[in-house]
Specification:
Elements: E1 4-7, E2 10-11, H1 16-31, H2 49-55, H3 77-85, E3 91-92, E4 95-98, H4 100-106, H5 111-128, E5 136-143, E6 150-157, H6 167-181, H7 183-216, H8 220-236, H9 250-264, H10 267-284, H11 305-327, H12 338-346, H13 350-362, H14 366-378, H15 382-415, H16 424-434
């Protein structure tokens, strides 16, 4: 069961029965005393809700009733009941409940504490309910129930027009209240989180150094990532326009995601990502019962940056491969077109075969390029022989370097979430609590 429960039902306006329900509800929540009583028969009618939150047992009374608002002036119950009952728009009826042990420990076992909380939170609440702050009106009463102390509220827009509460808005209210109520405990959580991240920093740096070394040694764990990166590089050579994830077609996006997931399969990255998820859940568990699904790293929005890093490395790889193939022959073939090289190559000119082979490789025509390089090498062309001998070595070296850079980038995404050195826990914690 979550430590904080927030429910926000609402009553639609512009109906006679709605007016009666709200009138009674405000009066009831403000003035109810003594033993728990069954709700009156017309509780579901509009006027009852005002009476309910004012009258119910163990409602802490600030005068002759328990109703309070953000001002220091006493709430006039009869005036408030009339105001709420005659309101033409929607009226929201939040119920905010804590467990008894949390209310006692954190000091939310009295009306004044709740008044202070709700007053300070009214800006965020109005924003979440899409009501201009100057139009936002609310009243509440604290009910000191045995196992779940809680407050009942009525909220609405004075103009009778504004106000709309979405699921996203409800989630913001829940998380915002949790951060305020459990601020001290959350500070301790973030402090522990920072300490664990400090440890993760050193571990990640060491892990990345080991990964780079294993990659350069032909570690089989990175072999598939390299193959996928090379395939992506080859496909991107034929893509025009912006080479960014959002602009790619679905098949290429799938290939980028596959590269990311292959990187994430490295045991060290899996461990780091699991720790990141757990730290986030430590906070969410304060006000949520069910935790969000742990998405694959490629689908986690906080790590979406790595997708464009993958694309950047693939483009870099394609450019390097193309430059190596074209660089030496760019000037030599300036005056000769491909057709002329083709004619000379077919006449067994070994240099033409060598030049044509490199040109075709640069343009992505690997099979034909290797064919002409092989023909030149068989005729004793030492350049073609050397090129064929080291072609795969050079290509593999570039791939390994690309994959190594990606591991560095991915590790840096974890490191970037750490508080800057020398600024301590407070800055990171305050930022989290404000967010």
């Amino acid at each position: 069961m979550p430590r904080l429960i927030v429910k926000i039902p609402y009553t639609k306006g512009r109906a006679r029965k709605t007016s009666a329900h709200l009138k009674n509800y405000v009066r009831y929540m403000a003035t109810r005393e003594g033993a728990e009583k069954p709700l009156p028969p017309n509780f579901r009618q509009k006027e009852n809700y005002t009476r309910y939150i004012a009258n119910r047992p163990r409602a802490e009374q600030v005068s002759d009733h328990a109703l309070f608002s953000s001002t220091d002036e006493p709430v006039v119950l009869s005036q408030t009941v009339k105001e709420v009952a005659n309101h033409p728009g929607n009226v929201w009826k939040p119920i905010i409940s804590l467990r008894r042990e949390d209310a006692e420990r954190l000091g939310y076992n009295n009306a004044q504490a709740w008044k202070n909380l709700l007053t300070s939170f009214s800006v965020e609440m109005a924003q979440a309910m899409k009501i201009p702050l100057e139009q936002f009106r609310w009243y509440a009463a604290f009910h000191d129930e045995g196992h779940h102390p809680h407050v009942h509220m009525v909220c609405y827009s004075a103009d009778g027009k504004s106000g709309f509460l979405t699921n996203e808005g409800l989630a913001k209210i829940k998380s915002g209240l949790a951060k305020e109520i459990f601020r001290q405990e959350l500070t301790e959580i973030y402090s522990r989180q920072t300490q664990r991240r400090d440890s993760l920093t050193a571990e990640t740096k060491n892990v990345l150094e080991q990964l780079v070394q294993r990659i350069q040694d032909g570690d089989p764990e990175s072999e598939r990532a390299g193959q996928l990166l090379l395939r992506l590089a080859e496909k991107l050579k034929t893509v025009g326009g912006k080479k960014q994830y959002g602009y790619l077609k679905a098949p290429l996006k799938d290939l980028v995601d596959e590269v990311v997931e292959e990187l994430a399969n490295a045991p060290q990255i899996t461990e780091a990502y699991g720790l990141w998820c757990k730290l986030r859940e430590d906070v969410l568990r304060t006000y949520r019962d069910a935790m969000p699904e742990r998405l694959p790293l490629s689908q986690q929005k906080e790590f979406k940056q790595v997708k464009n890093l993958v694309i950047r490395e693939a483009v870099r790889l394609g450019e390097y491969l193309g430059y190596f193939s074209l660089g030496e022959i760019e000037e030599e073939t300036m005056q000769e077109e491909k057709e002329n090289l083709q004619v000379s190559a077919e006449r067994s000119n070994s240099y033409a075969q060598y030049a044509l082979g490199k040109l075709l490789l640069a343009r992505g025509d690997k099979e034909k390029g290797v064919h002409w390089l092989t023909a030149a090498a068989e005729q004793g062309n030492i350049y073609a022989q050397y090129f064929l001998l080291h072609l795969d070595d050079f290509r593999n070296q570039l791939v390994r370097q690309g994959v190594a850079r990606l591991f560095h980038h991915l590790g840096n995404l974890f490191l970037e979430q750490l508080p800057p050195a020398g600024q301590g826990v407070k800055m990171g914690t305050d930022h989290k609590l404000r967010g």
